[in-house]
Amino acid sequence: MSDVKKLFVKTYGCQMNVYDSERMVEAMGVNGYVETDTPDDADLILLNTCHIREKAAEKVYSELGRYRKLKAKNPDLKIGVAGCVAQAEGEEIIRRQPLVDLVVGSQAYHRLPEMAEKAGNGVQVVDTEFPEEDKFDHLPRGPKARRAPCAFLTVQEGCDKFCAFCVVPYTRGAEVSRPAERLLAEARDLVERGVAEINLLGQNVNAYQAGDWTLARLIRELAKIDGLERIRFTTSHPNDMSDDLIAAHGEVEKLMPYLHLPVQSGSDKVLKAMNRRHTVDEYLATIERIKAARPDIMLSGDFIVGFPGEDEADFQATMDLCEQVRYGQAYSFKYSPRPGTPAADRAHVDEDVKGERLARLQTLLTQHQVDFQNSMIGRVIPVLLEKKGREDGQMIGKSPYLHAVHMLADQSLVGTVVNAKIVATERNSLSGVVV
Q1: Do 302 and 420 lie in a common domain?
Q2: In CA terms, which of 118, 276, 283, 421 is 20 to 30 Å from 261?
Q3: Nearest to 349 by CA among 363, 336, 365
């Protein structure tokens, strides 16, 4: 094994990028790299990027500019860009920022150790191909370190939906599902290393289909693993909420009562323009079926405000939908055009109008979140203890509904589930006492 080198990874964007970064760190560990929490003493800086939001690439170039002094101070420092901006921009990144030594796309990072060896001393390496081989099969495995109680597990990548606002089909490719046997093996490995909760990830996770394995079947099999206490999955498309997956919410005790099911708009006109391929009534009917299977489920959603063509009536329809569903948590954004997507060249809604609508929507969504959290006061719920808090004796755990829960508890209980009575709420968390 070569001398120890230091790797600094900065992760942007979604949970799948968090998972990818973990696997990159593990892969580079085989080449003698250990992770550091600062770029100042790193031998390799890696930016794992996201391309969903407007000006994402510009943020990456700005971040790269901050490393110019580090590169001047240490000419042997290697700098890499990975993920979706790398996939979208490719060699343009090196043209605009020559200090970059390597660019690796979202489907090729299993080649990162080899690329890092080649790069440097004036050699720049770019790989943004969509390889035929499964990157997960070819990732080098580092030492099996103890893990935190909660972990991500990517089961599906890519998307075939081609929503008019979204770059995912172009940066992540077509939908691909990983073989169930490999996922079960990885899950067992995670549990052996201390993981008690696994969150199954995919750009369109409920489209998972590997042979005759559906996401519901995978969840049922995962639930049989001793030591695995909780299962979650995200992000889902309403059109892929199948009967067997809905039934699993009512029948699999380890599957948490939390579902992130983005709708994006409450207007059928806007949904059609977005190419969402479902109506508001179809979405609401799906929610009714889910609540029938699991009455205590908490719903989360995504909303885009000011999509091209949205008028005040369309926006009011979104507000009406939120009033009807009453999401316990939601994410909302102003529409931002992504180059290369069908909506990018359409006439845009005025920015001031978008901002005013977003403020109104977020006020409503925040009130619904507060109402849900207030409804938790007095309830006794199972909480997975994850880590020590800032204060002596304080622990931070996770509710079944994904809330952070603060409480006093024995430090030795990290990784276990305890019953806690909720006594108060904060803006984005709950306070409890062990019972």
Answers
A1: no
A2: 421
A3: 336
